[in-house]
Amino acid sequence: MNKKNKVFQKYRFQIISLAVILLLTGFKLTAGDENEISEETMNTEDKTLEKATFGAGCFWGIEAAYRQIEGVKSTQVGYLGGTFDNPTYSDVCNDNTGHAEVVEVQFDPSKVSYEMLLNVFWESHDPTTLNRQGPDIGTQYRSAIFYHSREQKEKAELSMEEMDNSGEFKNKIVTEITEASTFFVAEEYHQQYLEKRGLSSCKIK
Questions:
Q1: Among 48, 144, 148, 204, which is least packed by CB within 10 angstroms?
Q2: Is residue 205 part of a domain?
Q3: Do residues 61 and 194 make contact, with C-beta atoms less than 8 angstroms apart?
Q4: CA–CA separation, 192 and 194 (whole Å)
């Protein structure tokens, strides 16, 4: 056996162990880099989306209306604007929590503008009836725009003024324009309620 083979045999275990360690370390570093890139890409994609929140009576109908709009990436219905933590549908229907039934919309502003979402809002309900939409009565059914930025607030106020002056409605608009607070997601069976049942709307306007 030559000198090189003797050295290899003597330190074989150490050499193999070092090779395994290097291999595993290299793999972990590579996997970590990939995860970082993936997470960074995900965050970048999320930052391109904006959020809008509307209350227009029963949240089943307003959610269905927004899900038909190109540029709307996702929706979820829930409760907002009250003083009671983690309300249930039953709590809200008792009309003593202060929450409104709302839809939270994630949208791509490069494909659909906030102004267009406001137009859908006005077209989807009667904003002149206080705490009521058709047979549904109570503060949870109030007409409301919950803004997420000063820009949304200004656009909502301007849009409401224009609608009030347009003659579209016989009575004065009573829509509430309020800064968005904590949003509580509604129970799963409320999510995409009409869509799951093959319906496109429950418009009562």
A1: 48
A2: no
A3: yes
A4: 6
Residue (of 106, 62, 99) closest to 202 by Cα position = 62
Q: Residues 18, 62: one domain?
A: no
Note whether 70 and 84 are same-domain residues. yes
- The residues annotated with a catalytic role in the active site are 58
Domain that holds residue 31: 3-46
The CATH number for 112's domain is 3.30.1060.10
**pLDDT at residue 200, as a whole number:** 59
In sequence order, which ranges of 54-205 are alpha helices (DSSP H)?
59-67, 89-93, 114-123, 150-166, 193-196
Report the distance separating Cα 189 and Cα 146, nearest Å. 24
Output DSSP code: residue 121.
H
Is residue 192 helix, strand or coil? coil
- Taking 70 as the pLDDT cut, the residues of the chain under it are 1-46, 200-205
Strand partners, 109: none
What is this structure's pTM? 0.75
Return the pLDDT at 197: 84
Q: Which of 10, 7, 22, 92 is nearest to 58 (CA)?
A: 92
Total domains in the chain come to 2
Q: Are residues 82 and 15 in the same domain?
A: no
Residue 199 has what pLDDT?
Answer: 72
Per-residue model confidence (pLDDT) at position 17: 54
Nearest to 82 by CA among 107, 105, 100: 100
